[in-house]
Amino acid sequence: MVEILPSLLSADFARLGDQIAQVEAAGASMLHFDVMDGHFVPNLTMGTPVLQSIRKITKIHIDVHLMITNADQIAPIFIEAGADSVSVHQETCPHLDRTLKLIQTEGALAGVVLNPSTPVSTLSEVLDIADFVLVMSVNPGFGGQKFLPNSLNKIRQLAALRAEWGLDFKIEIDGGVGSSNAADIARAGADWLVAGNSVFGAADPAAAFQALRSAAREATQQAA
Ligand code: DX5
Ligand code: ZN
User: Fold this and answer.
1) Ligand 1 atom closest to Cα of residue 175
2) Is 97 labeled as catalytic in the residue annotation?
3) Which protein residue has the closest C-alpha to ligand 1 atom 4?
4) Could you tell me if the CB of 42 is within 6 A of ligand 1?
5) How many domains does one find in the chain?
6) What's the average model confidence in pLDDT over 181-193?
7) What percentage of residues in the chain have a pLDDT greater than 90?
């Protein structure tokens, strides 16, 4: 079943609890939590105290996206703070095999992220280990950017490899997802669609979430 993951980066941080309750009441089963270090990406966001607070108010899946240079050191503390899945960038992890296994050993699903300029072929040796692959459809660092269309080709490549090799990793897409492209993204083979600005930037986040989910599920003929 295709899922829409509201990205907290675009939420009102002064009302984070309310905003989570809104999308949860609308049916969200997963949330996306962006961690930026000001080195790998030119921005800073949230740390473990925020995740711990959120963990206390919701039971739904929290997907932590690490945009940091020292993922091996930091991933375990986010899992301890309540992350259900953790993704790390291919570009920051020279020992990706070890990093993905570390995340799994610590008790979370392990994902690997590709920047727009990083080819799918760089993952050939870890696709059988990863629980999910996150395709960045913008250059990471900020919400509200425009979707890069080549990302659809990357989703199709990953979906083809998954079928050919008999694997079952999920395909996640992050950046510029909205009502104009959610159906195409789902049809290309993505399972998890991260949506920040198009959910929390909308006048009614719950309605925006449901519209996106219906568009994605109808495109793949799943019950909306
Ligand atoms: C960007 C982050 C995204 C961001 C997406 O670097 O990784 O998760 O929240 O925001 P939108 O959906 O607004 O492009
Ligand atoms: Zn993200």
Assistant:
1) 14
2) no
3) 143
4) no
5) 1
6) 98
7) 98
Q: Is the pLDDT of residue 223 over 70?
A: no
Asked if residue 116 has its Cβ within 6 Å of ligand 1, the reply is no
Q: What is the DSSP string of 90-157?
A: GGG-TTHHHHHHHHHHTTSEEEEEE-TTS-GGGGTTTTTT-SEEEEESS-TT-SSPPP-THHHHHHHH
> What pLDDT is attached to residue 129?
98
pLDDT for 222 equals: 78
Residue 15 carries which DSSP code?
G
pLDDT at 136: 99
- What's the whole-number mean pLDDT along residues 177-196? 98
User: Which residues of 139-213 form beta strands (DSSP E)?
Assistant: 170-174, 192-195
Which residue among the candidates 18, 174, 184, 191 is catalytic per the annotation? 174
Considering only CA atoms, which of 211, 154, 203 is closest in space to residue 178?
211
Name the amino acid, one letter, at 128: D
pTM > 0.70: yes or no: yes
Range of the domain at 85: 3-223
Residue 168 annotated as catalytic:
no
Q: Is the CB of 170 under 6 A from ligand 1?
A: no
User: If you take atom 7 of ligand 1, which residue's CA is the nearest one?
Assistant: 140
Ligand lying closest to the C-alpha of residue 194 = 1
Residue 140: CB within 6 Å of ligand 1? yes
What distance in angstroms lies between residue 39's CA and the mean position of ligand 2's atoms? 16
Residue type, 207: A
- CATH number of the domain bearing residue 126: 3.20.20.70
pLDDT in tens, 74-122: 999 999 999 999 999 999 999 999 999 999 999 999 999 999 999 999 9
